[in-house]
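Before we proceed, please read the two lines closing this message. Report back on whether the structure tokens fit the sequence:
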Amino acid sequence: MDVRQLGRVDYAPTYAAMQEFTSQRPAGPASDVRDQLWICEHPPVFTQGLAGKAEHIFLPGDIPVVQTNRGGQVTYHGPGQVVGYPLIDLQRAGYFVKEYVYRIEEAVIKTLAHFGVTGHRVAGAPGIYVRLDDPSGHAPLAQRPQLGAASKADPDFTGLGKIAALGIKVSRHCTYHGVALNVAMDLEPFSRINPCGYAKLQTMDLSTIGVQVGWQDAADVLGHKLATYLAP
């Protein structure tokens, strides 16, 4: 995988570049185009997914809103957040979308563990969460995904903060969009939306739970973990 550190880049041209790369790459096992992983951060922007509803953005103010073709609802990108965009041919990698999502989440969990934080999954709500009262505790969540258990229509976020959001698009077995990990942000813009479509879902970053880490250090770890866990 070709890992590219882009630094701080505007969202719209980055989105367009992902679309162009994906539409032009030959797909399938015979393709010799290397998968890529773009690591970056964005100036303040709200992005709306295909399932997004306008009522979930109630106070955009001076922050632009960009409509996208990824899955999910609205989220916020801004300085102090590490964004990873894996551009992967899943057919060549040998796994399907559900496992792809699992692998991205696992990379985030391992990144958080590197910094002494325990990340959790919540059934029916993609992304990674932390316990607000015990960010490093290892006790499993009652609302974690469990084999054979039906997902609840309304996930229980009591006592949790969302620290990483996930939104993907797959075209001709090739992925783009990706994952965002909150490191040291101004979290106020999250109060202007229902993050990921959930009212009162609290959003968290590493600095707020007491983990002081530079953006570049977090970007390096997340990039390494994503490249490792997304390998064929």
User: Anything to note?
Assistant: Residues 2-229 form a domain with the BirA Bifunctional Protein; domain 2 fold (CATH 3.30.930.10). Helices lie at 11-24, 90-93, 97-114, 215-229. Residues 61 and 228 are 39 Å apart (CA to CA).
